[in-house]
Structures are given as structure tokens and as C-alpha cells.
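User: C-alpha cells for both sequences below?

Assistant:
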Amino acid sequence: MTTSETIRPGGFLAGLNSRHHHRALAVFMAVVIAHWAEHIVQAVQIYALGWPVAKARGVLGMPFPWLISQEWLHYGYALVMLVFLWVLRHGFAGRSRQWWNLALAIQFWHHIEHLLLFIQAQSGWRLAGQKVPTSIIQLLVPRVELHLFYNTIVTIPMIVAVILHRRASVAEHELTGCVCGLPRAALAAS
């Protein structure tokens, strides 16, 4: 067994991290960046337009206000994001993998914070006697700013990872089986 065989997943995951990695990564990144943009729009609504926090709901929250108040939806997104960060990491190698792993680690903590919010929303218990579900860091930083920060510090390493991944060497691509960013000549030779 070679080193490359020991790090490659099999079956469905093998395809997702090799021949379909480019598409899977593009769709995932589009969703992540759109979610990040929602947090940015919400901050603009509050700080540039002067809207009260309760009225600043981002783009999708305006026609669908229930999206903002559903902790299960926020937790579900955090969990799905964590799963896809884990699943798609097998297509990365070298420096791009380090950046992707950084995003994964940060998202793991972000997921814990959302899990805590979800548990409070379901149980009625409140952290530190707060009136509403509250995460640990939210005891220090307001929720809007905190989640904009979390989404920013998860998304930026992901973008760096994707850029480095698209510029990866042929040797790095051979480690993973991924064809993202390979020149057509290298693809034809394989």
C-alpha cells in the first residue's frame, strides 16, 4: 500500500474528492460565501443603514423572517458545513490542506456554539441566566457581530485553501487524486 492509497477515501468519497471535487467544492463554496454575505448584509443594515437589530435580517430574512429565529436551522447549517469541511478535505494536500484544516477547526468550535444555542432553544434552559439562548463567546460579544466574525474567520482560510489548491503541484494532486486546477495536458497524460 502506498502513501497516497492510505489517505484516499473509497467509494462515493473517492469520486467527491477526485473527479467531482471541482464541482463539489464550487457548490460548497458558493453556499458558504452566500451565507457569509448574509451576515455582511445584516451588519450593513445595522451599522450603515441604522436599522434596529430586530429588523436587520439579511437578504433572505426579509421575506422569510422565521429563518432568523430558528435555532435548528442555524445548527443544521453549522453541522452540514462541518461535515462538508471534513468530507472535502481529502481532496486537499500540502499548504492548501493546512488552511482547509484551520477552517475545519474553527468551524468545529462554531458548531459547538450553535449546538449550545440549539440545546437552549429546545430545553428552555439559558446559559448564565440570560433571557435568550446565548453562546459562550456571546457573553462577551453581541450575536450579530460574533457570527459575522465566526463566518469570516472560517470563510477566509477556506478561500485561501481553494486558491492554493487550484495552484497545487501535480505531485500534490497525485496524493489526493483530485484534478482541480490541473492543466489539460496533465489531465490527458493521466
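Moving on to the next sequence.
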Amino acid sequence: MGVRLRAASVPGPAHTETGVPNQDAVLIRQGRWGWLAAVSDGMGSRPRADIGARTLCKAALDSVRELHFDCTNRALVEAIESNWLKRLDDLQIAANDAVATCLLAWGLPDSRFRLAQLGDGLILGHPAPACGLLSRDGGSFGNLTRGLGLSWRLEDWRFDSGQLLARGDALVLMTDGIADDLGSTDGLVSMLARELRNRGARSARAALTRDLTDWPTAHHSDDKTVAIIYRV
């Protein structure tokens, strides 16, 4: 058995109509060192929100590659913040102009994982892969609207950990463009894992992109981004 990662991100209709770039970002990576899924939502009121989100995902990858998996939560957060600020500085962009949220799932080849979240959006788990906050199918944790560039306190982050033990165990990270429209999350994670199980990377991304583009909620306007990690 192994772990697969799939993701998709689409701009919301409001941004498409006005020519505003997608202010969400997602990055998934997998190798001998383990795997990472990072999702970020740039704060729309900031002029470089899209760059803030993209650089935050890259900063998360920088951080997990330089840290030991068993590092403290503080060390992880400080590394993400430092790498994010360095990338923005290289682009001559002020952090306050690029505020962005962070949803992160970092795992090892044995499928142990740790989670970190700053700001809104949602992390779901199925069936009970985490030690506390993700305690059932559809169990989740979210947060208030905070983000790097606006909040620097460790207390503003939420953390969890666990292991994807059996086939079908999964995690889903999503921005609030999806999360805010969900009436119920029960069964959502297991359904997504089943639907993607037999799809290759390209097919899975196309299917997710189609679902996000054809979003059923009337008058929806926000960007939508999702990352899925599941045991096969």
C-alpha cells in the first residue's frame, strides 16, 4: 500500500469575469523523503494576494525539506514564516501586501502525518486518522480569518497528527471557497477517495477541476482549491 496525492485549483467566476488571477494556490509533492500537500488562500483585500499564496506553498516545501519530521510545531511555523518572508523579499513584496492562509499536511512514506493550519479553510479526515481533532468521518478543524503577514503568533495556528492506516483512509484540505458552501461534510472524504482511487494523476486533476468549475451552489464567486491525500 502507498499514499497518493491529488489536487486542483480554479479561479472563481467573479475573478474570471474581472480578470483577477486565482488568489488560491496548491502544491503537492511526493518522494523518498515523504509527501506534502500545501494549500493557501491569499487575502483578497491585499494587492499581491495571489503571489502571497503561491510563495507560501513553496515556503512550506522549503521548510519540510530542511526540517526533521519530528521537529516541534514552533520550529515548523518559524521555518515556514522565514522561508515565506525570504521568497517575498526576493520579489520585493511586503508581507502585508501578500497575506495568505496556510493548510498543510506533511507525511512520511509509512503514512504518518502532521497537520498545520493558519486561517480559514478546512481540513477533513476519514475515518479516524488523527489523534484528536479529526476524530470521525467528516471530522474537521478550521480557523478564523488569519494569515501570514497578519498574524505571527504560534497560538493562532492549529496542529494535529496521525497515520493513514488502511486503504481508503484520507485527508482533504480545502479553501473556504469550497468549505463555506458545504452543508454537511459527512462521507465527503471517503467519497472523494473512492472516486479518485483508480484514476491517474492527470485524470484525477481533470475530474477535480471539472467539479470545482461546475460548482452547484448558486451565485458562487470565490476561488476553489482542494488537495486530497489517500491510502491505496
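User: Anything stand out in the second?

Assistant: Residues 49-66 form the longest helix (18 residues).
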